[in-house]
Amino acid sequence: MALVRPEHPNPAARRPRLAVLLLLAFLALQLLVFLAFRAVRPPPAPVSVSTTAVPVLASAPTRRDENDSRCDGGLVYVYDLPKAFNEDLLGMCDALTPMYSLCPYLANDGLGFPAGGTNLSSLLPRQLLGSWYASDQFALEHIVHRRLLSHRCRTTDPGRAAAFFVPFYAGLTVGRHLWAANATGADRDRDCVALLSWLHAQPWYQRSHGWDHFIALGRITWDFRRTTDAGWGGSFLTMPGVANVTRLVIERDPWDGMDVGIPYPTGFHPRTAADVRAWQRYVARRPRPRLFAFAGAPRSAIKGDFRALLLEECQAAGAAACGALDCAEGRCIKNNALVMELFMGARFCLQPRGDSFTRRSLFDCLVAGAVPVLFWRRSAYRQYGWYLPVDGREGEWSVFIDRDQLRAGNLTVRGVLAAIPESRVRLMRKRVVKMIPGLVYSAADGEGLGGGMKDAVDIMVDGMLRRVAEQRPRWRTT
Questions:
Q1: What are phi and psi of 297, to 5 degrees?
Q2: Is residue 164 within a helix (H) or strand (E), and if so which, with residue range?
Q3: Contacts of 161 (CB under 8 A, 6+ apart)
Q4: In this structure, what is the dihedral angle of CA atoms 467, 469, 473, 477, given to the nearest 10 degrees?
Q5: In this structure, what DSSP letter does residue 299 have?
């Protein structure tokens, strides 16, 4: 039998009670909705959306990850580009340059083959062999990309990022066409145009017009500044669409404020601060019987070749005072152990300009604990302001010799260097050794070197976040 609830004897009398119950139920429902809304964080805005969905620029500072107390400057988002712009290029390693295969140098996430089993194994302390690789300067893009993917200040939420890294391997894509007999300007620019088309559709690029974006380039800036179709290189850096993007490049254009010079990769890729300190002690204590050394190939086709002059200076000083290494036919690229052994046995190393104003040899010299001798200010002083002490402090870690005075015979390299007091030489070498951590690209993941020690990528991230903060006022006016 069904139970029937009897009607209230006075229906009018139950209305106030019913109204109160409905009101309480409504308020409870509102409270539940409010608490649920606070407990669930809204999903991040998608990166690949229509161009109309542009995120609003937040006035509040970017939040940092709760477990990253050293990322107060903000977080970095790494774009997940189509593979054609980076990963697919690595599969072409045999064809990226005609002089030699890049495959051995792009192995191990761009670090190259380990030094164990190479000539470096007889030169380096056994406990540090695992920190050395056969690295190539053209692998910089891959090295930086790998390091940023696991960097402690990386965020996978673009809505929380203060800076955006574009992992486009522009140096590899342009480099494969530089020596091709039938390559046109369009061939060298095709991937760059496609990359900019993709990037400009991203809402985070549209928000700032690129002011908070950055890219690493594994070739010198002049390889991306072709002014005519028949000229050298690509024209990536002259394209309007990249005008506001910061370019971290191994050689910058001193007249372009969007270029920032970063170190050439050397073979030293330590995993811990302890590895770096062990290397610093090793090079600081290593005997250096020679006053100076020079590694480079003469340029016989160039009238008044300055490298040939330096080789003559070295020969005139005698083998006891100067060591020379002829790097013709890629000898030093194929066997960097020869360069490191030379520099680790000298107090000074000569660093003239190369095919351009900068050379990887400068950083090999510094990592070896030798004091560089420069002849062009653009070789270092106007290049690497984030990494090398400049603005009047150049004399702490380097020697500058007027090349015109040297050409005129008014002085000699040996005479200049021998006249430097030994006490000053010790201070300069001490300063050079202290600089080593910030000039190398760590092989570590996550925390990096640890112990508060920063490598070149840590300095890069710090510098880029400062730069974004400085440029933020331009976003609404450009």
A1: -105, 135
A2: strand 163-165
A3: 62, 74, 75, 76, 77, 155, 204, 212
A4: 50
A5: -
**Angle subtended at Cα 165 by Cα 449 and Cα 242, rounded to the nearest 5 degrees:** 140
Report the distance separating Cα 362 and Cα 2, nearest Å. Answer: 96
Tokens of 105: 């140098």
Reading the block at residue 363, the tokens are 């950083």
By CB atoms closer than 10 A (0-12, 13-18, 19+), residue 63 is middle
Q: What length is written for the chain?
A: 478
- Secondary-structure percent of the chain, ordered helix, strand, coil, rounded to 5: 45, 10, 45
Token pair 């009101």 in the structure block, residue: 23
Strand locations in 201-306, DSSP E? 213-217, 246-249, 259-261, 290-296
In this structure, which amino acid lies at residue 292? Answer: F
Contacts of 58 (CB under 8 A, 6+ apart): none
Location of structure tokens 């070149």: 456
- Residues 321-338 pLDDT 10s: 999 988 876 777 767 788
User: pLDDT digits over 43-95, tens only?
Assistant: 333 333 332 233 332 323 333 444 455 788 899 999 999 999 999 999 999 98
How many Å apart are CA 100 and CA 333, to the nearest integer?
A: 10
The phi, psi pair for 323, rounded to 5°, reads -110, 135
